[in-house]
Predict the structure.
Amino acid sequence: MQINTIIVLFILTGGIISIFRPMLLIYLFASLPILTMALSVSEYDTELKIAQLGSLNVFAMDYLLFVLLAVFVLLLLKFVILSHRSSVCLLPGMLNKMILILFAWDIILAALSYWKGFNFQNILRHLSTESLMFLTVLIPNIKSLENKKERFYNLLSLLCVMLVIIALWRYFFSHHVGLTSSGTSRAISGNAIVIFILPICYILFYSTHMTNRLPVPYAIAAFMIIGIILAGHRSGLIVVLMILFVRYMHIKRKKLNYFFIPLWGCALIISILFIFPKINYTAGKSFLGDLALRFNDTFDFNNRTTRDRLDIWQYSVDVLKDRPLLGAGTFPVDAKSMAKNNYFSPKTQIILDMPAHNVFVDKLIHEGIVGFSILVFFFYIIFKQFKLIFLLNRYYASFLITYFCAFFLFSLFNTTFSNYSGRIFFFIMLGMLNTEALKAASAIAAKKAAIKRMFSGNPNASR
């Protein structure tokens, strides 16, 4: 029996069980991108196919989304029928309401895309990817999440270690690698970076092992950084530097230490501008040579992919001049997708040679000022929750804040916010943030009620 078949059977069985144990569904969603990256024979992702219904391929992601729908149906039955309550009780808090607004906007965009010639099957598949946002609503409704979340982070760290080992095997032994625009080797998909930064942030900012100052957590975090290097993404290196800098600020309290921050920054800038460019390496010949070349190209505006992205960002300005309100008014599509999927038949469609690789530019091109404004407001609501969660656990809050900042930074240079791997981990972590924000809001409300009862002189008031 092939390993693909074993994994598919595991997902099918786990999906059925997770209808009654929703935390298992979170495990399956988080494991799926890692398993598909591990099973791919090169740096490109593959999808686990479960069945084929006529011309429709059913993948593991489609199955898990169907299970997610079933879990929500059970939650609605619990809140509406069994508890005799309105379904509004299922969606307290600003984040939950924002998720509904986002999905309503996606449905409007789907209607516009269909009117402009998109195939109905493609629209449904895109909406299914967008529905991953409901993980944010599901997670706060999982029982005893506080006792389960640490196991989730530890399992994720273990899976990431496995993925880095596979990437190292490809790079040094099997040589199943791809090439970047710099000619350097890429042993794993760039989508893996948003996965790797999660255990890095968890270990550096929250893990209970850190209290013992053991070297093992630091070694695991360093191992994840090697995985990011093997992914060959320049923006991944920038994200790592940002995380390490925040960690430095987090643990160093003496005023003297702040002297080293500008000193370190100046040394890095001098190295980038004057030292690294003068070192000659041959692409694909050594691990350190590839790292140096890729790092140099991070700040080389003549690099081909850098130039292409800057051109697309400039193109967004031209699109906004012609169609400021809704932009293209469709789901994103690029020329490569047109060639690969012949069921695209847009009538009046803006087609890019490659994705915009920037979450804001992508919104401006395809959804105009309306979509851009909704996204900015969504991010504002997220950052607004950060003040709440510090009331419960500042270490856990630091972990969540650093992860989201790293994710947003990476999304400024990649398609992370639109591909399913990035969305899975973004909305799982947003669900964790939502849980903490709801608990903090409940604690504040209880405190205000207690103060009100104390000053009213009636201990039973507001009960």
Remarks:
- Confidence is low (pLDDT under 50) at residues 334-351.
- Residues 119 and 344 are 6 Å apart (CA to CA).
